[in-house]
Amino acid sequence: MYKALIRPILFQFDPENVHHFTFSLIRILFKLPGVKSLFKKLYVVDDKSLERQVFGLTFKNPVGLAAGFDKDAKLYNELSNFGFGFIEIGTLTPKPQEGNPKKRLFRLKEDAAIINRMGFNNGGVLEAVARLKKNKGVLIGGNIGKNKVTPNETAVEDYEICFKALFDYVDYFVVNVSSPNTPNLRELQDKEPLTKLLKQLQVLNFQKEKSKPILLKIAPDLTDEQLLDIIDIVSETKIDGVIATNTTISREGLRSENKEEIGGLSGKPLKQRSTEVIRFLSEKSNKAFPIIGVGGINSSEDAMEKIEAGADLVQVYTGFVYEGPALIKQINKALLNYRK
Questions:
Q1: What is the pLDDT, as a whole number, of residue 340?
Q2: What's this model's pTM, rounded to 2 decimal places?
Q3: What is the enclosing helix (H) or strand (E) of 295?
Q4: Cα–Cα distance between 115 and 267 in angstroms, integer?
Q5: Is residue 69 a known part of a binding site?
Q6: Residue of 179, 256, 282, 285 marked catalytic
Q7: Which of 45, 68, 222, 283 is the most buried (most CB within 10 A)?
Q8: What pLDDT, on the 0 to 100 scale, is given for residue 339?
Q9: What are phi and psi of 218, to 5 degrees?
């Protein structure tokens, strides 16, 4: 029903406006009696064999919602009823920020893709914390970044602020230094500043009575040499895993008329490269750390490809927009058959 009826209507309107509209609609719907049960019946695959133990956490199933969809933790409880095993919120920054000027979100329909240059628009970490206090058992990842006005030289402080504020309210952390939409942010992926950043977060982490998993989200545009650096950094800093990958700045092979818009590209065109990165990290590290695979998952076959390449968990975003909530159910059903 989504692809045949709902998506054609939604795709007639501005993507960012539609995003806010659907959030409001879902919030209203879930206040109606019986709606939560209906969505669970339609989309949730409840099977013990789908459980995964990864970096010390138990995931009900290995299919998550990637960061960027529910940036401000406004709808994670409702979205969990679409079949997700976990929800990643953010990217959050210490202070609220508007992000980049609109228009900043573009559908590439012919390519089943999206270009965004949102720029870490969010209400700030404390606003999200207030909402996370109402969590009803959803496994949450907290994706953290720096404010646009914060220079790279003091970026560590921004990540520390977010880490401290979120610690009691998320199950794992994701350090985002790979968005192409915040000026100079990707420079923090270089070996020296990245090692310094992750080590400092680990100092805070190990001061806690019980530490929490820290993951690094990387760009798909890294060279093999840079990916080998990532493997070294994970080993040296003893973080818990990697999310591969964020959006790409590549525009290779695109057909849509708005393909030259500035920003990060997500969706189907990213599928091959993100899988290559997952396979490279898995093989070259000898499976030394867990990987969450994301990028171009539009079908259960795409998800299985990521898992076979070495991903322990997967996340969707653009595929969720194009395929609807049935995608999560399809992936989980395929995983049940795969396990057998």
A1: 47
A2: 0.97
A3: none
A4: 9
A5: yes
A6: 179
A7: 68
A8: 61
A9: -115, 160
Three-state secondary-structure class, residue 299: coil
H-helix or E-strand containing 216? Answer: strand 214-218
How do the residues of the chain divide into helix, strand and coil, expressed in percent and rounded to 5? 45, 15, 40
86 has binding-site annotation: no
Nearest-angstrom CA–CA distance, 17 and 21: 6
Q: Give the largest CA-CA distance in the chain.
A: 55
Burial class (CB in 10 A: 0-12, 13-18, 19+), 36: middle
Q: Classify 144 in phi/psi space as left (phi over 0), alpha (psi -120 to 50) or beta.
A: beta
- Cα radius of gyration (the chain): 19
Q: What percent of the chain has pLDDT over 90?
A: 98
- pLDDT single digits (tens) 240-292: 999 999 999 999 999 999 999 999 999 999 999 999 999 999 999 999 999 99
Place of tokens 């995931």: 59
pLDDT of residue 309 exceeding 80, the answer is: yes
Write the CATH number for 177: 3.20.20.70
d(CA 62, CA 291): 11
| Ligand-binding site membership of 247 (annotated) | yes
Burial class (CB in 10 A: 0-12, 13-18, 19+), 20: exposed
179 classed as catalytic: yes
Structural domain for 188, as ranges: 2-339
The DSSP letter of residue 239 is: -
Q: If 0-12 CB within 10 Å is exposed, 13-18 middle and 19+ buried, where does residue 208 land?
A: exposed
Structural domains counted in the chain: 1
Question: Is 217 flagged in the annotation as binding?
Answer: yes
